[in-house]
């Protein structure tokens, strides 16, 4: 009986270390994350949530991640037959991770996305990748900023600036919109550094489940006192979108933490360029009034190019695992 979890872990490890499966999983996660942008914008419209109704936005985010955590715990117990228990001494670290990657990240992300377009949000959220590169310079001795990374950062941030230039290249920037989305990328980057280390001590799925549970409860606790009566009345469409958003969060976070544990961060981060690409394209298809313009396309190319340059392996150079 006790051998089952070990057999499942061994089988899962095979897929998480096979280079072809790693590429497929990384791209799958990135497309899932990208699909969140149009899903959330459509959800706001379906639920009648206004950009200034922060309580409703925060509670909606909390419900999403609470459901996602329940999905993950179900998979842990029924699917991979892993114990969801963690040592008490780990809870402060997991709570910090939940505070950063769930509570703060999605407080800024949800409120920011309510004040900007889905396509802008998709591009700006990629700032997390560049923050990770900068933080890694100080955290890992063999992951310093070199000329290649600096060129990649310049290309990426040029794309981020360009996406904020508007349809006619006039700069329109709001701290409650674009600023909040960038801040969500900053706290997510901090969480990524912490998650990389914690995944070595706690099973990635268990880590993700607990961080989502703790983070979601904090979001609900903060937003619930100010929630207006009948602020969140779910239609069938809104309920379906909620279930999907919870599913994508549970799946993408769990799988990403798993491949992050078993692979070098530099080798898989490159595939996150698909997040803004998928987000912008799907927003143009599903959000009324949004379309792909020339500067959006140029910005997508620059951001993708920046991430590729930053993560492209240099012959003879080893990156931090």
From TrEMBL:
<feature type="transmembrane region" description="Helical">
    <location>
        <begin position="238"/>
        <end position="256"/>
    </location>
</feature>
<keyword id="KW-1003">Cell membrane</keyword>
<feature type="transmembrane region" description="Helical">
    <location>
        <begin position="20"/>
        <end position="37"/>
    </location>
</feature>
<feature type="transmembrane region" description="Helical">
    <location>
        <begin position="90"/>
        <end position="109"/>
    </location>
</feature>
<dbReference type="InterPro" id="IPR037185">
    <property type="entry name" value="EmrE-like"/>
</dbReference>
<protein>
    <recommendedName>
        <fullName>EamA domain-containing protein</fullName>
    </recommendedName>
</protein>
<dbReference type="Pfam" id="PF00892">
    <property type="entry name" value="EamA"/>
</dbReference>
<feature type="transmembrane region" description="Helical">
    <location>
        <begin position="179"/>
        <end position="198"/>
    </location>
</feature>
<feature type="transmembrane region" description="Helical">
    <location>
        <begin position="121"/>
        <end position="141"/>
    </location>
</feature>
<feature type="domain" description="EamA">
    <location>
        <begin position="177"/>
        <end position="311"/>
    </location>
</feature>
<feature type="transmembrane region" description="Helical">
    <location>
        <begin position="57"/>
        <end position="78"/>
    </location>
</feature>
<comment type="similarity">
    <text>Belongs to the EamA transporter family.</text>
</comment>
<keyword id="KW-1133">Transmembrane helix</keyword>
<dbReference type="GO" id="GO:0005886">
    <property type="term" value="C:plasma membrane"/>
</dbReference>
<feature type="domain" description="EamA">
    <location>
        <begin position="22"/>
        <end position="164"/>
    </location>
</feature>
<feature type="transmembrane region" description="Helical">
    <location>
        <begin position="268"/>
        <end position="287"/>
    </location>
</feature>
<feature type="transmembrane region" description="Helical">
    <location>
        <begin position="150"/>
        <end position="167"/>
    </location>
</feature>
<feature type="transmembrane region" description="Helical">
    <location>
        <begin position="293"/>
        <end position="314"/>
    </location>
</feature>
<dbReference type="InterPro" id="IPR050638">
    <property type="entry name" value="AA-Vitamin_Transporters"/>
</dbReference>
<feature type="transmembrane region" description="Helical">
    <location>
        <begin position="205"/>
        <end position="226"/>
    </location>
</feature>
<dbReference type="InterPro" id="IPR000620">
    <property type="entry name" value="EamA_dom"/>
</dbReference>
<keyword id="KW-0812">Transmembrane</keyword>
<keyword id="KW-0472">Membrane</keyword>
